[in-house]
Amino acid sequence: MVPTVGLKVPLVDDGDGTALLTDQYELTMLQAALRSGTAGRRSVFEVFARSLPAGRRYGVVAGVGRLLDAIEAFRFEAAELEFLAANGIVDEPTLRWLEKYRFTGNVWGYAEGDCYFPESPILVVEGTFGEAVLLETLALSVLNHDCAIASAASRMVQAAQGRPIIEMGSRRTHERAAVAAARAAYVAGFSTTSNLEAGRLYGVPTAGTSAHSFSLLHDSERHAFEAQLASLGDGTTLLVDTYDVERAVRTAVELAGPPLGAVRIDSGDLGVMARRVRAQLDSLGAHDTRIVVTGDLDEFGIAALAAAPVDGYGVGTALVTGSGAPTASLIYKLVARADSPDEDAPMRPVAKRSPGKPSRGGRKTAIRRIDGHGTAFSETISTGEAMPGQRDRLLHVPLVRNGDIVGREPLGSARERHARSVAELPTTAIQLSKGEPAVPTEFVQGGPRP
Amino acid sequence: MVPTVGLKVPLVDDGDGTALLTDQYELTMLQAALRSGTAGRRSVFEVFARSLPAGRRYGVVAGVGRLLDAIEAFRFEAAELEFLAANGIVDEPTLRWLEKYRFTGNVWGYAEGDCYFPESPILVVEGTFGEAVLLETLALSVLNHDCAIASAASRMVQAAQGRPIIEMGSRRTHERAAVAAARAAYVAGFSTTSNLEAGRLYGVPTAGTSAHSFSLLHDSERHAFEAQLASLGDGTTLLVDTYDVERAVRTAVELAGPPLGAVRIDSGDLGVMARRVRAQLDSLGAHDTRIVVTGDLDEFGIAALAAAPVDGYGVGTALVTGSGAPTASLIYKLVARADSPDEDAPMRPVAKRSPGKPSRGGRKTAIRRIDGHGTAFSETISTGEAMPGQRDRLLHVPLVRNGDIVGREPLGSARERHARSVAELPTTAIQLSKGEPAVPTEFVQGGPRP
After folding, report:
1. Nearest to B127 by CA among B67, B42, B33, B68
2. Chain A nearest CA to B402, separation (Å)
3. Each residue of B256-284: pLDDT tens digit?
4. pLDDT of B394
5. What does the pLDDT read at residue A14?
6. Residue A12 in contact with residue A80, Cβ under 8 Å?
7. Domains of chain A
8. CB pair distance less than 8 Å for B36 and A351
9. Would you tell me which residues 247-306 of chain A have a C-beta closer than 8 angstroms to some C-beta of chain B?
10. Is there a contact between B327 and A173 if contact means CB atoms under 8 Å apart?
11. Which terminus in chain B has less CB density within 10 A, N or C?
């Protein structure tokens, strides 16, 4: 799309612009700062959570790759500028500034898939105040959503103890959030998703066979099974709880024989049903036919089925709603800024003093300290130079350098990193019960950064 | 975008296609039904919730306008077809069917903004099985999200008793869900949103002035206030809790005088602070300066401030997360289908018998029965012809007729309808305490529809 400010162009939703996924106050602050001469002051904003959702042991960083795409698409083009002008949201000088806007600063962050803890500075944005303040809402939206989903997903993956989980919650959340949720769940260790757009956009493996409506469409369950087997092959998963599970399993094995891939149970007491169906399948010689259970599962429901003969789980609502914590409560705070717009003006730590919501001034570095057994024992945050020991991990990686995206990576890398990051935590991390963060956050006063 | 199946085109995200915002099993069911000859059977699917979120008195229908846009954009074009082909998700005959896909059926639904109750058939989709099953995930995603948000928003609006509420939760939810949330909140009676894209796409009035970072950017709070007043005028809202509220209010009135538009308090005990600030403003002669409070408010927090001198509320997290109920638990169920693909084959009611999840077969009509005082007393659902009394309201309106969208309306109409719909409910509806639905759902057996 070519910017054509001054010309009237139709206001179409081009669908990929991200510049207005923003709270109005960022633009009014920009306008006021441009006028007061402070918009050019070098500034550092940090993203962190004051606490984890009640009782959670760790959080999971997700959405980093999506955020980088969104920053790249953050441009004020004709549609955006015309809206702002027509509604008098900002003045002429600000419109001219926005027209040329392109983020030229630097971003560091925790790598996608890594774990985080209270106060972990998971994103650091450095630029002029004007260019950095504009990214506040977008950065928080992406990270608050994706981290919430990945944090819940990771607990489910731990509860499943190696059994695969399919993500199938698209219908229970906003249609685009569903795509991001599928991606975040995959980072956290889910095997597949039902969401096709997540397959197309992000390469997440997709899965899915049939619903109850398919059985109801046909003149009998037998007809429905025959139709599905004829089209999708014996390796498919047949849904067996539309009418009577025992009869359905008998019909399924009669039609497909032992090569039948799997049966799915979506209702009733899943543990009891799984045992009965396993015994029935075995008695029919279908020893290799797997049992997949779905139906309002969350991490606790999955854990309760650990001893049941279940070969895979499907999780929907609990995943896309963050299993009780639908947002990660991450905030975006100005922690340092220059005294003048000069490029080499010294940086000054800043912090608000609002009751109950204090912030810590100064740009932070973060280290995960690792003991001789390879286990994390401290999230060490410092306003000075990071001083990692030999085994410790420096947590920030470069994501954007002078406006260029440098932090892209394949999604599989984030998924592998997450598995390593959880494995490195103390064993308390994978307890589902409520408790303290698995690793304590410790603040170290440091000298000024060089 | 021109479909160019057969040619290799780059897989770009054109951003407005909706056909892959779908669970894979809809496509595999389509494939199997095409093969078994059942895909062309006329079918009726209904969207309803088995229950409201625990203790809620009513739900609010929202997202209808968004769903109509999404249905119109539901086409399998080059990018979608190539993904499906490359990943072997469906076979060649299905790809050819999808390429020509366009929904040609009918959709009726509760009008946007109307209230709903357990089992209310808020959407009825009629078409061939193939064309109607494909809309399952998309319809549920849009409605589950938007209804959840609007249902929470409506309670907040009732609690605010006429005081305006600004929606400011964008940062706490997925970046595109945020836009839909702002729209749903407006339908439910919120005054404004901070989300600029909701302003551009849907015409929701936008608002916003400044954050704490603006005060921290400047050398003093006084400088920050001067900058904001110079740029945005005396009618702006100054944020007064960055350092010390009393000093900030004094400075604010000193600089702007009594014409100061408003002050915003974002932390502390909002009721106590509002009383102190009101007294201080009055003592300084700023009788018309309004007080806006924000900071983790939900419907209960708003209600608790009813007696405080507050002129407006800002609500973020609680709004975009549905205040404890982030999804509306709506489901999409096949309730009737023909015995053959013949256009005039008789329709047969169908229902599954899964334990705990039974469904009622047959296409439904719905009436809100209204007594002589204009108060609703029954949600009457029938599988026969609707027989409304003189005061009763027939709840279904036509949304799509033979594939053509006929149900579009200005967003303001939905907002006005919602206000009327809530006003018509018994007064128990606006109690925030947990309880039964404000209007009981009653099933009436009816004869066959003509």
Report:
1. B42
2. 22
3. 999 999 999 999 999 999 999 999 999 99
4. 96
5. 46
6. no
7. 40-70+104-139+328-444 (3.20.140.10), 209-303 (3.20.20.70)
8. no
9. 266-268, 295
10. yes
11. C
Residue B105 scores a pLDDT above 60: yes
B231 in A contact zone (CB under 8 Å): yes
CA pair distance A421, A376, nearest whole angstrom? 9
A244 Cβ neighbours under 8 A, 6+ residues apart: B353
The pair of structure tokens assigned to B119 is 């089992």
Query: Residues of chain A whose pLDDT is less than 70?
Result: 1-15, 355-358, 446-450
Name residue B11's beta-bridge partners: none
- Asked if B356 lies within 8 A of A268 by C-beta distance, the reply is yes
Question: Which residues of chain B from 167 to 196 reach within 8 Å of chain A, CB to CB?
Answer: 168, 170-180, 194-196
Q: At CB < 8 A and 24+ separation, what contacts does B158-161 make? A: B158/B299, B158/B422, B158/B430, B159/B299, B159/B300, B159/B302, B159/B303, B159/B306, B159/B432, B160/B302, B160/B313, B161/B306
State the DSSP code for A5: T
Q: Would an 8 Å CB–CB cutoff place B43 in contact with chain A?
A: yes
Query: Which residue has tokens 């392109």?
Result: A102
Q: Give the C-alpha separation, B263 to B225, whole Å.
A: 11
Q: pTM of the predicted model, to two decimals?
A: 0.95
B42 touches chain A (CB under 8 A): no
* CA–CA min distance A376, chain B (Å): 29
Q: With a CB-CB cutoff of 8 Å, which residues 396-425 of chain B face chain A?
A: none
Distance, CA of B292 to CA of B264 (rounded, Å)? 5
ipTM: 0.95
Instruction: Encode pLDDT of A261-310 as tens digits.
Output: 999 999 999 999 999 999 999 999 999 999 999 999 999 999 999 999 99
Looking at residue B343, what is its pLDDT?
Answer: 87
Q: How confident is the model at residue B443 (pLDDT cuts 50, 70, 90)?
A: very high
Q: Does B140 touch chain A (CB under 8 A)?
A: yes
Best mutation target among B34, B76, B216 (most A Cβ atoms within 10 Å) is B216
